[in-house]
Amino acid sequence: MTNTFLEKLHPGFSQTIELAGAPIIEEKSQFQHIRIFDSVRNGRVLVLDDIVQLTTRDECGYSEMLTHLPMLEHGNVKQVMIAGGGDMAIAEEALKHRGVEVVFNVEIDERVVDLSRRHLGDVNAGAFADPRLKVQIEDAFVFLADKASRHRFDLIIADRPDPVGPAEVLFGDTFYERVRDALAPGGFAVFQNGVPFFQPEELTDTLRQMKKTFRYSGVYLAVVPSYIGGFMALTWVSNDAVLGDPSKWQALDTAFAASRIATDYYTPAMHRAAFALPAWIERLVRA
After folding, report:
1. Domain spanning 4-55: which CATH class is it, in words?
2. Angle, nearest 10°, between helix axes 173-182 and 200-213?
3. 1-49: per-residue pLDDT in tens?
4. Catalytic pick among 159, 173, 181, 245
């Protein structure tokens, strides 16, 4: 590893990150190549298999929008499951909600959890210190099939990578069926679905799959500069509820103020704006 890291995530387009000092971690686990380093501009960086997963400067746009938006609109989330997310940044955001009883963070690679605990405390120290966090070292695909997961979770967050290699199963019909069966009444599941500017087929194919399995589905947007390409698509599904329901938005400001949660990205205004799609993304959704 040199003093720069080159991410070639999309054909014909890449980004270069300049390191601030020597790499902190560079090793191969049972599942993937793990890098952690400090960057000149974006703080500490976690890279898995040469793909940027998190920078401490802008992870808020991702983790806050995957948690606070569905949780505040739901209004009574008690049981949360996170698939992946071994850095625990999403878990920390979910645990900021006082009404949450338990967060199961189901991560297949124990080494990511151990290294994140040691080196990414800026984004996860609160999670590891919270007794409501249950770290489960297991394949989320298997965890969801367990009878104990049936109709259990008010919120399921799939912090999945791109649909290649072992993660491909997290984009299949069986995975969505297991998510459907694990949702409690009124519950939501949310997923990251890449950057539509460079990955339009991922969004259209996923929404098509979701419509086969769930009664309600849709997309909202966030911007995370380190995930090159502009808008990131966050998709949602439910068996019996609609996310992005304007009739619920009048209570957002009061609920957010009452939560006393400090954020860097999420606000009720950003919540409402996330469902406003540029015309070209609306065309992808309709495709």
Report:
1. mainly beta
2. 50
3. 469 999 998 889 999 999 999 999 999 999 999 999 999 999 999 999 9
4. 159
